[in-house]
């Protein structure tokens, strides 16, 4: 389920800001790679700095994209076997255990990413002399944003399921749950 329609205004704006950064970052990657390849092919030289910028953008877009997917409820869950084998009460407990495991994983990635970023901050990149830690900071930032969205989503599922519209399970984006209504 796309949780964004039931987000408070602060989370809506955070989600929109991330979407804007993803669009800008993705377009920048395409433009940089195309321009650099064209210059290399037609003019016989390339822009050395473009490789570093592209690497930074790719990492930041990857981890911000994770947060955007969490906000949309778009991370894939394969539930066919669980829905066939387990009763609905057990499915609910399993979903809570998985949500807890996701929270613990995100916290672990935040701590690990923070450690890597702070330990490499003094190192500089070869061409632009940017801190290498800025590259690695993409992981704790992206995972912290993912955690914010995931905690809100789990809170809605647990404490306010009435906010989830159209009788759609929060674990299906494809409308597969709606087949049960017919």
Automatic annotation (TrEMBL):
InterPro entries, per the entry: DctQ (IPR055348), TRAP_DctQ (IPR007387)
Keyword set, alphabetical order: Cell inner membrane, Cell membrane, Membrane, Transmembrane, Transmembrane helix, Transport
Top-level division of the source organism's lineage: Bacteria
Location relative to the cell: Cell inner membrane
Keyword Transport: yes
Membrane topology summary: Multi-pass membrane protein
Any one Pfam family match given in the protein's UniProt record, by short name: DctQ
Domain (Tripartite ATP-independent periplasmic transporters DctQ component) ranges: 29-154
Transmembrane segment boundaries: 12-35, 47-71, 92-116, 128-152
Family: Belongs to the TRAP transporter small permease family.
General function of this protein: Part of the tripartite ATP-independent periplasmic (TRAP) transport system.
Quaternary structure, from the entry: The complex comprises the extracytoplasmic solute receptor protein and the two transmembrane proteins.
Name assigned to this protein: TRAP transporter small permease protein
The organism of origin for this protein: Maritalea porphyrae
